[in-house]
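Q: Structure tokens for this one, please.
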Amino acid sequence: MSLRRKHIAHITGPESYRAARDRVTGLTDVLTEHGLTLAGGAPLYGYDNWEIFAADCRLPLTTVDLDLEQLATTAATHLFAVLDGQTRSGVIRQPCRLVVRESTAPLPSR
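A: Here is the predicted structure, written as tokens:
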């Protein structure tokens, strides 16, 4: 057995699944069809809090809310400024929040 395989041999399955975007929540159906559990088992979380997908799927999805409306407004503001000849550079940080739903179990108490 290779050193890499020995290093991960104790892993019996995923500890969590991350959807690149909330739109790929169809993963919950595929996992369920294969007998894998999410809440209470391996949790699934998404990234963008697109409500139509995150809140309304079979297992409501825990997700990171990026405040897409504010993100779009900020992007448009900076785009129009550049088009008007203004120089823009740097990193713009925008706060986000975790929206906990049924696809993740609560953390165990210590």
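A few notes: DSSP finds four helices and four strands in the chain. The chain has a mean pLDDT of 77.
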